[in-house]
UniProtKB/TrEMBL annotation:
InterPro entries: BfmA-like_N. Residues 110-130 are annotated as: Disordered. NCBIfam families: mob_BfmA_Nterm. It comes from the Bacteria. This is BfmA/BtgA family mobilization protein.
Length: 130
């Protein structure tokens, strides 16, 4: 039985034989009872505001085009924010940091003494005296 509808009684509907056969096949595909299948169909049409007389194709296409337009609008807003807010702010911050960067000073490095070379030499007289 259908959950929540066990105590309800059945009602007869006047349906053509070909339509009833088709509906029974559809119910078996969904693995639902005929009552629950019909209830699901009614809920679907009511929730989505779709009439069975309308073709869903154009509705889906218009919905898709509306979504694409909104996405394009969001992209345009983000690009505008980047252009007018982020880039100028970033440029100002970079210019501030450039002003306060210390200038690089050249370091005075002491040359290492070479091996086998005498750093200090004695001064020799012309008389060869030590």
């Amino acid at each position: 039985m259908d959950k929540g509808y066990e105590k309800e009684r059945f009602e007869m509907l006047g349906i053509k034989v070909s339509v009833a056969k088709r509906f029974r096949k559809f119910s078996k595909k969904l693995s639902k009872s005929q009552s629950m299948t019909l209830l699901l169909m009614l809920d679907f049409f009511e929730e989505n505001g779709i009439s069975p007389n309308e073709n869903i194709g154009p509705n889906m296409q218009t919905l898709e085009s509306k979504i694409k337009k909104r996405i394009d609008a969001v992209i345009a807003i983000i690009k505008d924010i980047e252009k007018h807010h982020d880039k100028p702010t970033t440029a100002m911050l970079q210019s501030l940091f450039m002003e306060f960067e210390p200038k690089e000073k050249k370091l005075l490095l002491e040359k290492e003494p070479q091996k086998n070379k005498v750093q200090f030499e004695e001064k020799r007289n012309s008389d060869n005296q030590l």
